[in-house]
Design a protein that fits this description.
Blueprint (H helix, E strand, L loop, with lengths): L6 H8 L5 E5 L8 H8 L4 E4 L3 H10 L3 E5 L15 E3 L2 H4 L13 H12 L9 H13 L8 H14 L5 H13 L12 H17 L10 H12 L15 H10 L1 H4 L10 H15 L6 H20 L7 H18 L18 H7 L5 E6 L4 H14 L4 E8 L6 H10 L12 H12 L7 E6 L12 E6 L1 H8 L3 H14 L2 H10 L3 E5 L5 E5 L8 E3 L2 E7 L2 H6 L5 E4 L9 E5 L3 E2 L6 E3 L5 H4 E8 L1
Parallel strand pairs: 1-3, 1-4, 2-3, 5-8, 5-9, 7-8, 10-15
Antiparallel strand pairs: 6-17, 9-17, 10-16, 11-12, 12-14, 13-14
Helix pairs in contact: 7-10, 13-14, 14-17, 17-21, 18-19, 20-21
Protein name: PglZ domain protein
Organism: Acetohalobium arabaticum (strain ATCC 49924 / DSM 5501 / Z-7288)
């Protein structure tokens, strides 16, 4: 971004014309790496005050310096009249918010809040409570202006998805709400993430067996969140066999409500038809509102399951109307929101493919493996997941999602994964090994010889001796998709390929050697019929028949095709114009086929899986 939250602070410091400046930073805003880099462009030394003796020595050596103090009381007496002082605070960034209640924000949250703050008009100064409610509504999409326990729990679940402890003004706000409403829990019992989810597990059990439970998990605000808690392993489902409850009643509730079913360990296995009915209910409820990016990830996973089961059991026709509704809503999201995702730097809320590698590096694993399954959609992931759970014992698969580059083709999206760069910033297509090596050597204390890379069709066992980072590309899913006549045959082909592969051996060896493993994909795939149009020389990829790319808008407008959609994402791919279709059609002959390249949810939102013991 050209203008960040810290520019106001930077401008304030730059306005002081002096070789040495004393900066009072009680809120530790100058710990921002981005701000420090900007300051170092102006001053040769930017340092935190540690002791008077050390400061005296450094001042003799430095001609230009910024000295940072946590408090004005820390400034030694001999400096008070010698050098100018400036105090920086949240007030400089958010002049109409109450700065005393912003002490719990992390830098990524400050950036997101700043973006929203800049686009809203404030006619009055907000007080402490109004500020907190505004920040929570902006960052967590929860209205916390009442004492309803369901609102409080919804906020805390989202809060603990990204944080490990309640701190600062949030601690006081939540504590007051719990006390004023006489709830049976106090803030000290749920301040830590683990403690909160243990408490919530107890409340979930209470809800299943008690009609007068304190928390109503059937509240629409909680259904998807509680489902996500179980899916991410933050809460453990109830084991019915060990509970003194009316099993028949709970099982019936589980059959009728997906969010109940997700929190019960041993619910009777449902038939495929019943399962599809539940998944349809989940998706239809999601589609009634304006979906956040996290909810689009949930929708993609649900639809992946529906598509896989419906194709394999030959029941897809009954889902055509739901498919069209989903497709239309997602295309609207792509047109209105996709290009703006680059401005949200929180990985959980804008997991573009180019951010996967930076996200991994940020987690600081000692050793890691990034494995890209070319062309893997959430439908295909069900086949891979079944293979892994069958062939590996005690392996945890934490399912997340990422967004492919559009057009959804290998040359754009896979290079983004392994270089950490957006396509508009990187012209080295099909240079994944080069991109991975350069990124890791720049960001980590690692040598080229410690990075293993391979691009092959089918997984085979590898030698990991001496390696700290592994990058692998497996192409068998994409090849099977392009070679299969229909999805059902494709899934059968994948099952056969996996059974004869050594993928399980590769994963087990990585786990045994203490590698943290991440599965990802460069794009998904879509079963399409052709439209008879042949813009062959403009296709991004001969086998990706859903996208043609033009350098000029007038050329893109000239091509005649039914349900044409012209897309331009200057922040992501640059100035090119993409011509694709709103519906599930492909360019070329009318024979149906699995392909990709377009902006459909099955092509764009793809699995990101964390594998561990």
């Amino acid at each position: 971004m050209e203008y960040s939250w810290y520019n106001a602070i930077l401008d304030k410091i730059k306005s002081i014309e002096a070789d040495i400046i004393l900066v009072i930073d009680s809120e530790e805003l100058l710990k921002s790496q981005g701000l420090q880099e900007k300051l170092k462009d102006l001053y040769s030394t930017v340092e935190l005050y540690q002791s008077e003796l050390l400061l005296r020595r450094n001042l003799k050596q430095e001609q230009e310096a910024i000295i940072i103090f946590e408090s004005g009381n820390d400034i030694p007496y001999f400096l008070l009249d010698k050098y100018p002082e400036v105090e920086v605070s949240y007030r400089d960034i958010f002049p109409q918010l109450a700065e005393e209640v912003l002490d719990w924000l992390e830098e990524k949250e400050i950036e997101e809040l700043y973006l929203y703050y800049q686009t809203n008009d404030f006619f009055t100064q907000l007080d402490s409570r109004e500020t907190l409610e505004f920040v929570i509504k902006t960052l967590y999409e929860v209205a916390l202006n009442g004492n309803q326990i369901e609102n409080i729990v919804a906020f805390l679940i989202k809060y603990f998805f990204v944080k490990s402890e309640i701190t600062g003004a949030i601690n006081e706000l939540v504590g007051e709400k719990l006390v004023s409403s006489n709830y049976t829990v106090n803030i000290n019992q749920i301040r830590e993430r683990d403690d909160f989810f243990i408490w919530l597990e107890g409340k979930w059990k209470e809800f299943l067996i008690n009609e007068r439970a304190e928390i109503d998990f059937s509240d629409p605000k909680l259904r998807y969140l509680i489902d996500d808690c179980f899916e991410q392993g933050l809460m453990q489902p109830v084991d019915l066999s060990n509970e003194d409850i009316d099993l028949e009643t709970v099982i019936n509730e589980g059959r009728a409500n997906y969010w109940v079913r997700s929190g019960i360990q041993n619910l009777n296995r449902l038939s495929v038809k019943q399962e599809l009915k539940i998944e349809r209910e989940k998706l239809e409820e999601l589609l009634t509102g304006n979906l956040s990016i996290r909810e689009w990830g949930i929708a993609a996973k649900i639809w992946g399951k529906i598509s896989y089961l419906a194709y394999t059991e030959e029941m897809y026709e009954s889902f055509i109307s739901l498919q069209k509704r989903l497709d239309e809503k997602f295309i609207n999201f792509v047109e209105e929101e996709y290009d703006r995702l680059v401005f949200d730097h929180r990985f959980q809320y804008a997991p573009l493919n180019n951010r996967i590698l930076p996200h991994i590096v940020e987690e600081e694993p000692d050793k890691f493996a990034l494995i890209c399954f070319d062309g893997m959609s959430f439908k295909d992931w069900r086949v891979v997941k079944q293979y892994l759970t069958t062939n590996l014992d005690s392996v945890s698969l934490k399912e997340k999602f990422s967004l492919a580059m559009i057009p959804t083709v290998t040359s754009y999206s896979r290079q983004a994964i392994f270089s950490g760069e957006l396509p508009r910033n990187n012209d080295d297509k099909y240079q994944e090994e080069k991109g991975l090596t350069q990124y890791l050597m720049n960001e980590l204390d690692i040598n080229k010889e410690e990075i293993y890379f391979d691009n092959c069709e089918v997984p085979t066992e590898i030698n990991l001796l001496g390696y700290k980072a592994v990058g692998l590309i497996y192409r068998f899913i994409d090849k099977s998709a392009h070679n299969s006549l229909n999805p059902k045959l494709h899934y059968k082909s994948l099952t056969d390929i996996l059974e004869s592969s050594e993928l399980a051996k590769v994963i087990m060896k990585l786990i045994t050697n203490n590698f943290k493993i991440y599965f990802t994909s460069d794009h998904g795939n879509l079963f399409c019929k052709g439209n008879g149009v042949h813009p062959s020389r403009h296709l991004v990829d001969d086998r990706a028949n859903r996208a043609a790319v033009y350098q000029h808008e007038n050329l893109a407008k000239e091509i005649e095709v039914s349900n044409k959609l012209i897309l331009n994402f200057p922040n992501i791919i640059g100035d090119d114009y993409i011509v694709t279709m709103r519906d599930r059609k492909k360019f070329g002959n009318k024979r149906p086929a699995l392909t990709h390249g377009g902006p459909n949810i099955e092509e764009v939102i793809i699995p990101l899986i964390e594998v561990s013991k």
